[in-house]
Amino acid sequence: MRFRQQMWSVCVSVLAAVVSLAPAPLAAASLDDPFVSTERQWVVTGEKFELSVKRFRLYKREPRPLPVILIHGLLVNSSFLDFGRASLAEYLAEVGFDVWNLSLRGTGRSLNPLGWGKKPWNLDDILKSDLPAVIEHVRKEAGGAEVLVVGYELGGALALAHVGRSPGHGVAGVVSVAAPMSFDSPDQDWLDTLLKLDRVPLLRSSLLHMNSSGLNRLLFFMPWFEDAFYNRKNMAQSVRQELLDTALTPVNPGVLDQIVTTVERDEFVSADGKTSYRDTLSGITIPVLLVGGGADSIAPPEALRRVYREVGSEDRDLMIFWPDPGEDMSYGHFDLILGRKAKDEVFPLIRKWLAAKAGGRDFLSLPR
Predict the structure, then answer these.
(1) Are 61 and 93 in contact (CB under 8 A)?
(2) Is the pLDDT of residue 81 over 70?
């Protein structure tokens, strides 16, 4: 009997010790605490495309007066701007912006409409039909007179072309990240070499289906191709692999044809080559921020300086991220959004500029 009592006493003591070492239960989050809520909405164009826009905003918090539309680039889908811990969409929503992350037609959940078949579209169609419809939808839903636009690469070029060619564009300001409007810099010569593959039917298929497996094959056969898209030292291996697995998307044939024409003409032009969207830059009168990386060979610094010189607005800024002295961490193309320090260096620049144009405080009084 005494032995049983002693064993019982030991078990109780051990159990008490384990309980004392266990972490205290976390307090349940209150619905009054700020957190980013998301909601997917659909914008239907005149051609019956259903464009997906994912909305990010603080729950039960009054947003800043001007909503922000995010537009991704070529080869990537909208998850590129909502990428795990490097989510530009969540970052801006956390400081009070009403953020709308757009999936361009044919990417992500913005799939081909029923009955469309395999008919190709091009960038002119996006400028004519999609961007006006999305901007009108966001203005109506957010109750704002105008919107701010943050465009990455192709998204930035489309945003600049839209406001340059459309007097009633409804945009209060544009942040254009890694978006060239000309292609005659020596650093961009490799683009012309790559797009010559388009003339070979078998290789054209690889360009059209630039998904993770396709890009992995190109990286295997052409290691320089990887360096053209990002500085490997500036992107974690896990991020690079996740990019290949989740954020890439095929290219529509009509879009590819227009990109080939654009690179051959050395400037962003319409599909028929008759209209220069670069020439419309002089018609831009709203504030513009241009952001680039010192090691970007798609949107090299000189190409962005040309955009800066040609934009008609007096309220324009250019920021090129160069490496610190003694470091080799200059930003390339993708790493302006997904780089190791992008959230600490690039994102705050975009946030401060947008906040200034929205006429509000830089930060809401929220813990960061």
Answers:
(1) no
(2) yes
- Confidence band (pLDDT; 50, 70, 90) for 340? very high
Domain ranges, ordered by start, for the chain: 36-358
Task: Count the Cβ atoms, other than its own, within 10 Å of residue 40.
Answer: 11
- Alpha carbon distance 290, 268 (integer Å): 16
Residue 331: per-residue pLDDT: 95
Residue closest to 235 by CA, chosen among 342, 134, 101, 90: 342
Report whether 339 contacts 346 (CB < 8 A).
yes
What would the mean pLDDT of 126-148 be, rounded to a whole number?
Answer: 94
Average pLDDT, the chain: 84
pTM: 0.85
Q: Are 265 and 326 a contacting pair, CB within 8 Å?
A: no
Complete edge-to-edge strand list for the sheet that includes strand 36-44: 36-44, 50-58, 99-102, 68-71, 147-152, 171-177, 288-293, 316-321
- Name the CATH superfamily housing domain 36-358: Alpha/Beta hydrolase fold, catalytic domain (3.40.50.1820)
Extract the tokens encoding 15.
């159990």
Ranges of H-type helices in 65-120: 88-94
Length of the chain: 368
Name which of 222, 166, 158 is nearest 190 in CA terms.
222
**Which alpha helices (DSSP H) does 22-153 contain, by range?**
88-94, 123-125, 131-142
